[in-house]
Structures are given as C-alpha cells and as structure tokens.
Predict the structure.
Amino acid sequence: MGHIEVKLLGNLQYYTEGEKKVHRLELDENEEISLEKVIEELKLPRDEINLILVNEEACELSSKIKKGDRVKILPVIAGGI
Amino acid sequence: MNNGFHGKILKINLSDRTREEISIAGEKYKKYLSGSGLAGWILTSNYDPELPPLDEKSPLIFMAGMLTGTRVPTACKVSVVGKSPLTGIWAESTVGGFFGSKLKRTGYDGVVLTGKASGPVYLQINEGEVDFQTADNLWGKDVYASEKSIKEESGEDYEVACIGPAGENQALIAGIMIGGRETRAAGRCGMGALMGSKNVKAVAVNGEKKPSLYDKEGLNDHLKQFIPELRDKAEGLTKYGTAGGVMAVEANGDLPIKNWQLGSWEEGAEKTSGQHIDKTVLTGHYSCYACPIRCGKDVEIRVGPFKGEEGHGPEYETCAAFGSMVLNDDIDYLCAANDLCNRYGLDTISTGNAVAMAIECYEKGIISGEDTDGLQLEWGNGEAILNLIEKIASREGIGDILSLGVKRAAEELGGNAEEFAVHTKGLSYAFHDPRAFTSMAGNYATANRGACHLEALSYFTESGTYPAENFGFDKEIEPHHHENKGELAAVMQNFMNLFNALGLCKFLIRGEVTTEDLSEWVNLVTGWNFDVDELIEIGERLHNLKRMYNVQQGISRKDDNLPPRLLTHDRETGRAGGSLPHLGRILSDYYEYRGWSKEGIPESDKLDDLGLEYLNQ
C-alpha cells in the first residue's frame, strides 16, 4: 500500500467534502491511476480546473500517476475581475 | 425610426445654466454604437484635444450603452468619458447599478456637462426638465448621505451619480459613485475630480421614456436559453462575488503582493477571500439592473469610524488593494477601508496602490513619521491604512500628495519613490500581474486609459476560464511565453471595446458569451443586420479612435511601457516565479497586427479603412 498526495490550490477545496485543501488517496503497491480518475474521486468540476502539476510538471488528464507522486491542481480564475 | 436608442443627447452648460437637445443621426450609432463609443466620437469631433482636463470648457460625458435599459442580461452600464485629470489622456470609466438604465429613460442617450456652476449644485433631470438644485447642504457630505438626501428631496424613483468629499477636493484619484451604499463606482481616471471642478455634487435622473425594441419576442426567445446558462456558469460570482476569485488568482501567481514585490501569499489570500467574507461579515446580496448574477455583497463594518454600520462588500480588486498589496489579512480592516473609499468617493484600485507605495516609502526611509503626522505606515497596519484613506480624501498632509496618484506622488516624494510607483501613463495598475499572464503586459502597455485590466481581460483566457474560440482566436498560447500574446491582447481589446459601447457587463464572459450572442442581441434590439465581423470591426474602430485621441496628446511607443518593477523584477516564488514579460516582442507583434507604425501610431490606411479619416494627422 501507498498513497498519493493531492493539494488543491485556490478555491478548489470548496468543491470537496469537508472543504479540505490536502487529500491523500490510497493506492496498491504497483497501482497506477489517471488524473481523470483522481478528479472524479474528489468530485472536482472539470471546468474549474486550469492546470494539473505532478511533481511540479504540467500533465494531461490522461496521465497516470503512482504512489509517492505529489499532485497540485490549480483553478481557473473565476470571479476576480 | 430608432430602436434601442433615442438618437439625441442633452448638453448642459453649467456656467449659464442653459440646456440644448442635440440630435445624432442613426448612422453614428451604427458606426460607434453608444456608451464610450459614441462618447468618444463626441469628444474627438467637438472638443479641442489640447483643452486641459480641468478647464471649464472640458466636457464630462455620461453616455448609456446601446443595449442599456433593455432585458439583455447585465445591460445596465453607463460610461463616464472625458479627458482624465489624473493622466491627461483618454478617460472612460464604465459603471453598473441602476443609473444607466434610468438615464436612458429620460428620453436621452446621454448627458454632456460643460462649463462650471457658480456654486455647488446637483442636477435634477426628469425627462426633458433640468433643474439646478443647490448642493450647499450636501457639499462635504459622504456619498451614502448625499444619495439618501437627494432621493428624499427629489423622489425615490431618481437614480443618483454622486461624488464624495474626495471629488469635491479634486483628489485626482476620486471617482463618481452610483447607488449610494449599494455602491457601484466609475472609479478610474479621476472623473470625480472633473465633476468636482465643475461644482457638480450629483446628477439625478428620472423618466419613463424607454426606447422602442425591434423584435421583443425574438429577444425573449434568445434570452430564455442564455440566461439560465449564465446563471448556472456564474454561480461562484453569485455566491461569493468577485472576491471569490482571490484564492484562485493567488494560486496562479496573478495576485500582486506587498506593492508588487512577492509571488505568493496563500494563507493571506484565504483570509481576504469572498469565501471567508461569506463565513464572517456577509449580510446580504444585491444586483445591478437586468442582472441575473447578483454579484454585489453587503457586509457588516466592524472597525473604524463607521463601526456597526452596513457597507458594500469589497470586490476582488479591493481585496487586493487593501489585502495582499498592503499585507493586511484582517477582513474587518479590509471591509472598513473599502467602505471609507466608497463613502468618500475614492477609486479603491488607485488608492490601494498609493497606500502600498506610501508604506514602502515609509519602510525605506523616503517618508518619516513627521511626514505622516505620526502615522506608523507599516505593512498590515489596519488602523494606519484607514487613517491614511481619510487624509487622502481630505487632501491633508501626506494625503494631499497621495491624492495625486502614484506617478505624481512619487515625483513629489523624490528619492527612489518612482521605483515603487507602479503605473502606465499615470494610471496605477489593476491587480492582475502581467508577469503571470503575459498577454496582459501587451494590454497594460497599450490600454487607452493607462494600466487597465478591463480593456483586455485576457488573463481569463490564459487561465482557462474563457475559451478563446468564443471571440475567434485560435492560436497557441502559453502563459509565460511571448508568442501570439500581442495579437491576443489586440483581439480581446477589440472585443472588450464592444461591451462598454453596448452597456454590457464583462461578467458575461463567465456565461461564455460569444461574438454571435452580441451581434444577435444588437440586431434584435435595433433591427440592424450586423454580422460578427462587422461588429468586431466596430470594436477595432473604437480602440483606434481612442488611441488617436491619445496620439493627439503626444502618446506613442515611448509611453507604451511597463514600470521597472513589473518588467525586470522576478518575484522568484509562486506560480509565476521566474517569469518576466518580453514586452518588446509583444509590442512589435501587437503594432503589426493592428496596422500601426513601429512607433505605435495608427497608419493612415488603417484609419481610412476604419472610417476614421477625420482623425488622420
């Protein structure tokens, strides 16, 4: 077993249960999951996401991640005129 | 037969108290629309461009948008246009609330004020009737009290545009305020000082003369689909207002922090956000005319001279102005600072920049406690910030210097102060950092009124909020790179020019409005037959018209610049750490796309193509 850490930047935490900023998702030893799946699990609205960084590198929704990876999700600029 | 507009404006000479009704041909509306478009044509074709801004003969123009007063969502805007007392160049400040739609019901599309009243007055305009009311008893009163008093005297049906003590004192960063306590501000460019110089405390309008509509049923059909989508997509704005964007802006490295010096302020952003306001001081919501979004917020004022009263909730820009810019994470002081600016009639963007610059000057020894009458101007000192706002509005002590805006204030303060004065063409920056989304560097450098974010709003497209295909742009863009950024800035400026001419709120982009939607609405309201390209060409025409007014003031590439802090100072931290805009490349691409010379002057052929021959030099 292992986990990935997902940090939600800006206002994205407000879309999750408990409004938590940092989430840990448990994974099996050699399991890989797509970022698409991560977003689905956290129930984040797709159109509020601007950028996803895995270990500080920009990645596509289809990218797979594994245990130990650190994910940051950046929101689009809503409001803020 | 005119649909959607009256085809006439009211010109009022304040010096001799005369009024004149001026008819304007429908062709002019087709060419410039209304709002700041038609006002731009009036300014450039009727007034000597060399008139000093505060000369009695200089006009102050209030012009409602082409769609203002109709059912089109957000069609509430009125543009305030003239020569800026702050910058000496093109000034437009477009504002919501209910004044614009009521102005349209006077039977006129706009009002032009010239001359100077012999003493303080307010104008009571009821359809064709214009009464000069004494404002002796209002002079010195704040915006909330003045608006209330005028409505009590004139009638609750009147809508009021009003200045506060800052405008009376001709603070160059004073705005014109709409709606009293439920404030909307024509904040930028110092138009409050222009109104104050004419001894006009307020303009109050009333009437029932709505312009006819070409195809009411067709418009209703189109809106039946659009409005629910807008409401759905703009839900965040409805709930948290523009302040709901603070955290997202910070996460993208777009938030200016500590007078534009730092790159991240995560906890502070959370404490100064609309989400935090919602949990603490929020007391209600309100909207402008014809708006399903309702982004206006009411809050409780918990500190300062108006403790215990209710005020307008801070917008995103103000959260940055009196939050991140001055390192204040106390929401109570932030709300009180916003409330003071609204009461005294100050632009929160310009005031926040001036306060942040003053704090940095204090920190670095350019000003001392002696200069500030003992105020300890330290980062995050809420009490000192409130006191300084009072001084700016009354032009007392150091406040007198800061009331001139950061450019002139830095010149007065001397030393290294100019390093800390973040402005272009004398207008201090709105709070979106061009180091985060570099098309904004192209926009800020070339925006006609100075460092204005609203003339492009391209950070919305660069950050993934507003799809570029909605306004016909299909090139690759990468936030920190310069490629295609000049063109993106120009294309969005053309599009955004339409909003102020049509009287629409730019929040429509949250509903993913398209150029097709705009042309559809114009055609259904007026009976014209514009296609998208023709409409966009009007946007381009208006941008060039305003540029030519600035060229007449001596503006060229030398002025299309960014201050050193934004051009050469890498913030190192945050999402945009390491990014500096390549302004030279962006500008060259921008001029080429626009058909301007390398010095930034529109070429004769371009002006001819746009039907602006009269501005050819």
Summary: The first helix of chain B runs from residue 26 to 32. The two ends of chain B are 35 Å apart (CA to CA). The domain at 241-421 of chain B is CATH 1.10.569.10 (Aldehyde Ferredoxin Oxidoreductase Protein, subunit A; domain 2). Residues 260 and 379 of chain B are 13 Å apart (CA to CA).
